Amino acid sequence: MKNNVLTFKKAKETGKKISMLTAYDYSTAKLIDEAGVTAILVGDSLGNVMLGYENTIPVTMEDMIHHGAAVSRGAQNAMVVIDMPFMSYQVSVEKALINAGRLMKEGMADAVKLEGGSEVCPQIKAIVDAGIPVVAHLGLTPQAIHTLGGFRVQGKTPQVAQKLLEDAKAVEQAGAFAVTLECVPSKLASYITEQIKIPTIGIGAGNGCDGQVLVYQDMLGMFSDFTPKFVKRFASVGEVMKEAFSQYIAEVESGAFPSEEHGYQIDDDIIEKLY
Ligand code: KIV
Does residue 202 sit in the same domain as residue 136? Predict the structure, then answer.
């Protein structure tokens, strides 16, 4: 049975932590799924880590559908959440609904995620009313990078902390089944977690959240353009890959690869009869 909204609800009730990782392609999704993660996020962070953009603004619906469908094909048990990209839901409730529907039908999502608080509650309500589960996203919302003035911790002033709490309650009220808290001081994230009934999924929001999410390239040490303070490296896969690439290049250049075991045989008399 695939994880779903009830898995999240039960986790909040029992205190079992929710694990979430990003994925953007079939083979990685399969590995993450086999490891037993609760949910896979096809984040619009794919703009940074897969497509080489400076931020998530240029990511399109087509990008999310293309990568989302690949991930969905690799996820047997994990719930697949696909991000709604910049300008796919901000313009109107109608546009948000159409695009959330596309992520479900064409991207084969199990749920969608969108950024923002009270200002996007009409969109959250309409999408949920249409039968599509929604994860909200508060704190550092990368699509609003230009109004936030950069990638920085959110909620350090009384006003912003209060607004974050109110937004968390608002998205819960609008029907979101979980909320991501990104780059929020740990004590504030813990407080918000206690004040709402839906699970919080933290990224740079401390240990008091109901679950955690990380970008897989960050936690595997595969992406070095920018490493936020909250990232823990669980492996140095980037180094392993670079070593293997170097060895391949060396063996191709020396002629050591391919050896006989990697080739296909043919009877000598066939070669001899060629003219
Ligand atoms: O796009 C993404 O990967 C995200 C996570 C960082 C939460 O939204």
Answer: yes
Same domain, 250 and 229: no
The position carrying tokens 């918000």 is 192
Pocket test for ligand 1, best of 18, 21, 37, 44 (most atoms within 8 A of CB): 44
pLDDT tens string for the chain (275 positions)?
A: 899 999 999 999 999 999 999 999 999 999 999 999 999 999 999 999 999 999 999 999 999 999 999 999 999 999 999 999 999 999 999 999 999 999 999 999 999 999 999 999 999 999 999 999 999 999 999 999 999 999 999 999 999 999 999 999 999 999 999 999 999 999 999 999 999 999 999 999 999 999 999 999 999 999 888 788 999 999 999 999 999 999 999 999 999 999 999 999 999 999 999 99
| Residues 232, 245 within the same domain | no
Domain that holds residue 183: 5-236
Rounded to the nearest whole angstrom, what is the distance from the C-alpha of residue 130 to the centroid of ligand 1? Answer: 24
Rounded to whole angstroms, how far apart are CA atoms 157 and 150? 16
Residue 250, classed as helix, strand or coil, is: helix
The count of structural domains within the chain is 2
Q: Cα torsion for 70, 72, 78, 80, to the nearest 10°?
A: 100
Of 115, 200, 203, 230, the one to substitute when testing ligand 1's pocket (max ligand atoms within 8 A of C-beta) is 203
* Cβ partners under 8 Å of residue 267, min gap 6: none
Residues 136 and 176 in one domain: yes
